[in-house]
UniProtKB/TrEMBL annotation:
Species name: Heliobacterium mobile
Taxon lineage: Bacteria, Bacillati, Bacillota, Clostridia, Eubacteriales
Top-rank lineage group of the source organism: Bacteria
Protein name: Transposase DDE domain-containing protein
Amino acid sequence: MSIETKTYHTMGDFRSEVRYYLHYLESTFVLIHKVSKTMTAEEILVEYKQQYSIENRFRFLKSPLILGPVFLKSKKRIHALGHVFILALMVSSYLEYRVRKSLNENQESLTLPGNKKTQVPSIATILEYLKMIVVVSVNGE
């Protein structure tokens, strides 16, 4: 497929094949797995896509800032990176769980921007609140 070098200013100017090709170039899906060899890559992907909560949790991996600059040469390092991501997911999920449980038990809520209140804050909201904590040391204490 050849792409002309003409500059287009609006999406309406793109031909459908050019749009499709550019979308293809920008599409990335990272799938780290260790399952039996009886499943094909397509079957693993379909199974994974049916697990929406997992997909939602690993949404940050799709950011080019996270995985874009990472180049790993060995399978061992790729597996290790996968384990690091899973560990980070577990810690963030547990932090979300504990904060939500505490808010529920104490009948409290967190105030979001715009004075909205929530009893089920995301990990991003919790981390923003944690950034506001100031620790002061006086005479080493």
